Amino acid sequence: MNHSINPRSNADERSQLEDEFARQHASDTDEQLLSYVGSIASKLGRKPTKEETIGYRYIKSRLGNWPGIMVKLGLLEPKSVRVRRSIADKQKNRSKKN
Hints:
5 helices
């Protein structure tokens, strides 16, 4: 099955692809689903968006929210790290201005 989608596909086509993905991957392990998302990231050379990922609804129902999935794949830092880094950057920028 080709799991790529034309961004201009209509909602009915997308819904059919999502439903088909869920049926075909119902017995996949969480690791297999993560691997699938990781393969999309590898192909794109960046984090995939929800819209670029056929099976997003099913994957999210199994693995949790999209940012959490990106963290599990190492494609995004955990929010706590991002927040600490943002605070540190703001403090650094303030000290440079003074």
